[in-house]
Write a structure and sequence with these properties.
By secondary structure, this protein is mainly alpha-helical. It has 27 helices and three strands. It folds into three domains: 105 residues; 134 residues, no CATH class; 316 residues, no CATH class. Helix content is 64%, strand content 2%. A three-stranded mixed β-sheet has the order 1-3-2, with helices on one face. α8 packs parallel to α12 and α22 packs antiparallel against α23. The protein starts with a helix and ends with a helix.
């Protein structure tokens, strides 16, 4: 505009007026076109979100507390189905998304829409590959499989009104159809020679039997507790719904789990060897897809291995150096625990919370630790969203199979409803409880999720899975939070390096087993190189990598990608760099593949 003004003062007022009016008219048209382009893009992404969120009431309910406020409703009250045919045809859906994205003028989209565009395009491009590889998909697994997750999700289904109660009960009644569809897919896998191993089958059947064999079923006790909070329901109606739920659990849910165990067992003659994904015809290609999908990294398997090995050898060197200090060595070996650490090793205000107790099992202690973390992190992280949270213990009937802890995201329109589950808290040391709460709570999952929710992003962002971002951030937050626990930098750095060392070994084993085709003996040889020779431990790791491939990679590869991103910002900002600004950048852009985060870092 400055150059236009200088030119204009050299010519007549009449010509200036014509030029100015023409310029303003063109600017108005450009703004109008840009606004129309942006509105059309938002409408397009909202329609994609609605298409996914409204396929069944179960999906919709976990997105919204009050979907009617968004003028959307579910197609049916059910869990949906698992369809091999739909999986095979899924590439058409993602190709249509890519085609529709090409109709928008990217240059005229506002920055937030450009970010959504980039994420959606990357996501759709990656998911196209799934159609040809879906025979390798594993819906059932001991920890993150649908049969393991479903009881917890159902027990947390919020009952805000009578409509929710009715929808929930209809969803329960659909479990048998859902499992039947899953069994049909397992039969296709079995016929294709891609069925699970006998060991994995045994673990899943054992889990089903454990869930159905308990006298105090979670889906009965949790329903009774939730419906008691619906005060406007009459006593008669409450009792009626309690009776219906009890009948559905006993006559539908439990028989469905029994049916699942039987049908899976009947396919045992077609079990595959207890080996990784690479044994299957397209297993290696599926594993490559899985890594891209779960980690958010665009690196090849070889590049990821190199990245992990580079950090592994740095940590080995650092550990060897730090462990020359006898106190550090004793702490790492577990010879002394937190209350007995040498003077000035641990933060004094944290010691006051745990009251010199080697165990921290009460919910009050956990809440105090979370409040302590919130207070301590304020100098390094942007202020957290104002939100509430509750801590729950994993039910006994599920505890032997589920993760040590996990966080359940709130509904989009109910960000205060945050739940952290802790598995067998009585078995956690003070240090383990601290890191668990840092990972799941602050500055981990709960903090990152509610911070992003407060920004009111495009709805489609909630459906684009970025496991490497979310789990990588939680791992980064957990390790970062050690500074709020350990005052002594040598102790802190040694424990962080030791944690990274363990994660690196798990990830390299995962790649070795599922991509390079390691046998159990190969895996034992690998761990022996790093002085891990306990047979039971290595067997468990081997089983875990076969049953849930690439799961560990989203934690550690995600973490390493964040560290590389952090180094990039340090180089870019120089003396102006600060951790709090790096954290703000990551949190405000939200879940995204790391190549896109790097792009937006370079633009800032």
């Amino acid at each position: 505009m400055r150059r236009t003004f200088i030119i204009c003062i050299l010519i007549t007022f009449a010509i200036f007026t014509i030029i100015a009016e023409t310029f303003n008219h063109n600017l108005h048209l450009a703004e109008l076109h840009s606004a129309q382009n942006s509105a059309a893009f938002s409408k397009f992404t909202d329609s994609l979100f609605c298409n996914q969120a409204t396929q069944n009431s179960f999906n919709l309910h976990f997105y919204f507390k009050n979907p009617e406020n968004y003028d959307i409703s579910a197609d049916n009250d059910s869990l949906g189905t698992i369809s091999y045919k739909d999986m095979k045809n899924s590439s058409n859906y993602y190709m249509s998304i890519l085609h529709d994205l090409d109709t928008f003028d990217y240059s005229k989209l506002p920055e937030d829409n450009k970010l959504t565009y980039d994420i959606l395009k990357t996501y759709a491009s990656n998911e196209i590959d799934f159609a040809d590889l879906c025979i390798n998909y594993q819906p059932f697994s001991p920890t993150i499989g649908i049969q393991a997750q479903l009881p917890i999700l159902l027990s947390q289904y919020t009952l805000g009104n009578e409509k929710d109660v009715i929808s929930y009960l209809k969803t329960l009644s659909s479990i048998d159809d859902y499992f039947k569809s899953a069994i049909e897919f397992e039969k296709v896998k079995a016929d294709a020679g891609c069925y699970m191993s006998n060991k994995t089958l045994s673990d899943i059947v054992s889990q089903c039997n454990e869930f159905t064999g308990t006298s105090d079923n979670l889906l009965i006790s949790s329903f009774n507790e939730r419906i008691d909070n619906i005060k406007f329901l009459s006593v008669n109606k409450r009792n009626k719904y309690i009776a219906i739920n009890c009948n559905l659990v006993n006559k539908v849910v439990i028989p469905s789990y029994q049916y699942l165990a039987k049908e899976l067992s009947d396919l045992s003659p077609k079990c595959s060897p207890h080996l990784g994904l690479s044994q299957f015809e397209t297993g290696k290609e599926y594993y490559q897809y899985l890594i891209r999908s779960t980690t958010g990294s665009d690196k090849t398997v070889s590049e990821i291995e190199k990245m992990i090995n580079t950090q592994l050898h740095k940590d080995i060197y650092l550990l060897n150096t730090l462990c020359e200090n006898s106190d550090v060595s004793a702490i790492l070996s577990g010879q002394i625990n937190a209350p007995n650490f040498p003077k000035d090793t641990i933060q004094k205000d944290y010691l006051s919370i745990i009251n010199h107790d080697s165990k921290a099992t009460s919910s009050s202690t956990s809440n105090q630790i979370l409040k302590y973390l919130i207070k301590k992190m304020t100098t390094d992280f942007p202020p957290p969203a104002s939100t509430n949270f509750i801590l729950k213990e994993v039910p006994a009937s599920l505890s032997s199979h589920l993760s040590p802890a996990f966080y359940l995201s709130p509904q989009i329109d109910d960000p205060d409803n945050n739940v952290i589950f802790i598995n067998k808290p009585e078995q956690l040391s003070c240090e383990s409880l601290f890191t668990t709460l840092a990972h799941e709570g602050f500055p981990g999952h709960l903090y990152q999720t509610t911070y992003f929710l407060e920004k009111s992003p495009s709805l489609i962002r909630y459906t684009l899975d970025c496991g490497g971002y979310s789990e990588g951030w939680a791992t980064y937050a957990e390790l970062y939070a050690y500074k709020y626990l350990y005052k002594d930098s040598k102790v802190r750095n040694a424990i962080i390096s030791n944690s990274r060392f363990s994660l690196a070994l798990y990830c390299l084993a995962d790649i070795g087993i599922n991509y390079h085709g390691w046998s159990l003996d190969d895996t034992k040889d690998f761990f022996a190189k790093y002085s891990v020779s306990d047979t039971e431990t290595v067997n468990k790791i081997y089983d875990c990598m076969i049953e849930e491939p690439a799961n560990y990679l989203k934690y550690y590869v995600g973490y390493l990608e964040f560290m590389h991103l952090k180094e990039s910002m340090k180089k870019k900002r120089g003396d102006a760099y600060s951790d709090i600004e790096f954290h703000r950048f990551v949190l405000e852009n939200g879940p995204a593949p790391f190549s896109i985060l790097k792009k937006y870092l370079d633009l800032n």
